[in-house]
Amino acid sequence: MALAGTEYATPDVREKMRSTGSPITVAFEDPIFRAQGLKDDTYGEAKRFFELSDWQLHEVVCHCHVGANLPARWAASRVRAAISPGSGILAWLRGVFMH
């Protein structure tokens, strides 16, 4: 499940956002991530643990891209795009039009 409106929430509300079944919850259920220090499945904790900007995390978990249901395949591709060098809208557009 995607998170609704991450870009509109105030920073303190956004930090506490969570959704059962979100990519963040899936990561939190992984015992390796928990052993490495992932404390919970909130937006703020994912941002801290994975060292992502709000924009990068928004690209991965916000419902405005795919609606309430977030296919795992799509989420995985957004995670790869968010952490890869040259990520961002221009890199994404290059990828879309160059393939």
Question: Low-confidence segments, ≥5 residues, pLDDT <50?
Answer: none
Calculate the terminal CA-CA distance, rounded to whole Å: 28 Å
Percent range of helical residues: 55-70%
Query: How many H/I helices?
Result: 7
Structural description of this entry:
The protein is built from 7 helices and no strands. With 99 residues, the protein is mainly α. It has one domain. It starts with 10 loop residues before the first helix and ends with a helix. The mean pLDDT is 79.
Summarize the structure.
The protein is an all-alpha fold. Helix content is 56%, strand content 0%. It has one domain (11-98).
Key words describing this protein structure:
single chain, 99 residues, mainly alpha, 7 helices, 56% helix
Secondary structure blueprint with pairings:
Layout: H1 11-16, H2 23-28, H3 31-35, H4 43-50, H5 54-61, H6 72-83, H7 89-98
Helix pairs in contact: 5-6
